[in-house]
Amino acid sequence: MPAVIEVNNLSRHFSGRSVLNQLQATAAEGDVIALLGKNGAGKTTLLETILGFAVPQHGEVRLFGTASTEIGAREKQQIGFVPQQDELLEQLTPYEQLELFARFQPNWDPKLADRLCSSWEIPLTTRINKLSLGQRQKLSIMLALCHNPRLLILDEPVASLDPLARRQFLTELVNIAADQQTTIIFSSHIVTDMERVANKVWLLKDQQLLWQGELDALKESVVRLHFSSTKALPATLHELKVLHQQQQTTQYTLTVTNWQPQWQASLEQLLATDIRVEYLNLEEIFLELHR
Ligand SMILES: Nc1ncnc2c1ncn2[C@@H]1O[C@H](COP(=O)(O)OP(=O)(O)OP(=O)(O)O)[C@@H](O)[C@H]1O
């Protein structure tokens, strides 16, 4: 079976300025991918290229085995998308918008739609142009979720949600991923949320995917080493890459990538000291990788 998403040698640039440079990535059924990157790193550009909204200058994206710029109605029905700026029909009510959308979606789940309308308190009979930003975002998420997509792409889906709605939304995502093996990619600057639900991370930096893999492996790779030593540090410490070094007299704190737990004993021998390994959360890792 082909991968749900296959990104092959993908490059995008605007007016000669490179935004994505030769990206390689794949996503399989059931992957929940946190797409991370600073403002302007290219997250929206990547998500929109995955969806086939633009033809890349180099390379291609394949969705369910077909070039994303050539997918047909059947594949489109298997995708749910929450854009950064919603595309709701201003003059309709949420009820009308949901009804209209459901008509074109053979897999529409009316029970899920009813449940979300009620738990998210969607004002069904108010015109969409009178809704609050958060209410619009909830409706936009419902349109993406309620037809049981195989692939769900969410670009900053929670920016306007209150903490309660955010938590409810995350619970829905976890359930959907677990029950239906849906592939989910979502970008958000609320990294703690992503850490709760994602099992993979794509981290965009300098036009490339600096990390593409398991969240747990990333958390094992980027760590802080604390130790005390009167010796000068050797020029190389195995294959560790030091991201940041702090020293107060004999106390060292090194933030490193490529950490491998089996190196601890030999490093302790090399530095003639005990080392305390501190594991970081995803937000700290993101900050360290952008120092
Ligand atoms: N249509 C376009 N024309 C010209 N430049 C563009 C276009 N779309 C995006 N860019 C540029 O590409 C870069 C990446 O933009 P993009 O919106 O993908 O970033 P992002 O990671 O989603 O940012 P944010 O976190 O702020 O939403 C930015 O420098 C942006 O100015």
TrEMBL record:
GO MF term (any one): ATP binding
CDD domains assigned: ABC_DR_subfamily_A
Keyword set includes Kinase: no
Keyword ATP-binding set for record: yes
ABC transporter domain residues: 5-231
Domain of life: Bacteria
Name this protein carries in UniProt: ABC transporter ATP-binding protein
Taxonomic classification: Bacteria, Pseudomonadati, Pseudomonadota, Gammaproteobacteria, Alteromonadales
